[in-house]
């Protein structure tokens, strides 16, 4: 389980923390927490829970993709 969590929150080197992944996970937990709070407080299922969770998940995926694309390094000697 520790390896899974480590792979979720670290970069390709396995050591540096990826802040974007941490923020994404906190966003998912916040959406789930707000949905549970709303369900307990009002006794009804929040109608926008699926949409909210989908938007946070999509945002995390787009952020991870953009980060991966920006991390591509150029071979030595090709730098202008």
Any chance you could write out the topology, listing elements then pairs?
Blueprint: H1 2-9, H2 19-42, H3 49-70
Helix pairs in contact: 2-3
Descriptive key words:
80 residues; mainly alpha; 68% helix; elongated
Please give the alpha-carbon distance between the first and last residues: 44 Å
Shape: elongated
- In the predicted model, the low-confidence regions spanning at least 5 consecutive residues are none
For the residues shown, what is the average pLDDT? Answer: 81
Structural class by sheet pairing and helices: mainly alpha
Number of helices: 3
Number of strands: 0
Strand content: under 5%
Cα-based radius of gyration, to the nearest Å: 18 Å
Explain the overall architecture.
The protein is mainly alpha-helical and 80 residues long. 68% of the residues lie in helices and 0% in strands. The chain has helices at 2-9, 19-42, 49-70. Helix 2 packs antiparallel against helix 3 (49-70). The model has no long low-confidence stretch (mean pLDDT 81).
What is this structure, in a nutshell?
The protein is an all-alpha fold.
């Amino acid at each position: 389980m520790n390896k899974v969590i480590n792979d979720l929150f670290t970069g390709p080197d396995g050591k540096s923390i990826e802040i974007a992944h941490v923020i994404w996970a906190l966003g998912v937990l916040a959406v789930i927490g707000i949905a549970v709070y709303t369900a307990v407080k009002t006794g009804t299922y929040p109608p926008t829970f699926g949409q909210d969770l989908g938007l946070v998940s999509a945002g995390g995926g787009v952020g991870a993709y953009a980060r991966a694309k920006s991390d591509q390094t150029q071979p030595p000697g090709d730098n202008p």
